[in-house]
Amino acid sequence: MSSSSARASVIIVNYNGGQYLERCLTTLLPTLGPEDEVLLVDNGSTDGSAEWVERRFPFVQVIRSPVNGGFSYGCNLGARHARGTYLVFLNPDTAVSPGWLEELIAALQDPGVALATPCILLMDAPARVNTLGNDVHYTGLAFCRGIGTPRPVIGEVEDVAAISGAAFALRREVWEALGGMDEACFLYVEDTDLSWRAVLAGYRCVVVPQAVVYHRYTLRFGPNKIFYQERNRYRMLLKSLRWPTLMALLPALLLAEVVTWGYVVMYQRRRWTEKGRAYFWIVRHWQELMACRKAVQAARRARDRDLLARCTSRLAFEQTGAGAVAHWAHRLLDPLFGLILRTALILIRW
Question: How many CB atoms lie within 10 A of CB 172?
Answer without folding.
Answer: 17
